[in-house]
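Worked example 2:
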Amino acid sequence: MTAALAVLTFSAAVAVPLLWRGFYYMQIGPLHLVETTPWSCDQIREAYDQMMDFCMWGAPFGTGVLKWSEEGMRHFADCRVLFRLDLRMMVGTAAAVMGLLVVRRKYGIREWRPWGRGPLFWAGLIPACVFAVLALLVRFVNFDKAFVTFHHIFFPGKSNWIFDWNKDQIIQILPETFFMNCAILIVVLILAFSIGLIVTDLHQGRKEKRHAD
């Protein structure tokens, strides 16, 4: 249960900026994309939507009126593998958690509670600590280096993530600040989900103690 909840917490947090396109739309203005590129707000949104439709739902690749290359398209195909993997992890672990809850209720199974804390507590504490440390490292080490390291880890041996903005113009509407904001959102969501799990476990522990008394 603990492992499934921890993975669910992580995958659900990552899924939010992937599925919530409004998170990108609301940044078009603050990032001054219309003023710093040749395209209108509608054209920028169309390019982003077509790219994400390809990555998330397997639609034909396109970036609206923006130019793109085969090499750039292959990078988004690599991204599609990771994005879909995250969605599968989210759905799979959600199903696993629900199944475990049903089994626990049906057979009256009690989980192992090390130091008096249940799976909700540990499922919240572990990802919260891990990503809090990672967030601090990124903050103090440098987001640019973290961004490059991320791509070397998840796209080993490939360099097609380094775009030529003349050939793959979509990179002009995907500044590094946007990716940094996505990372911040993910960390905030992980911490929020984790706190919710911990608080729920503490509340359940108090209820069980009252019943025992």
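Residues 2-212 form one domain. The chain has one domain: 2-212.
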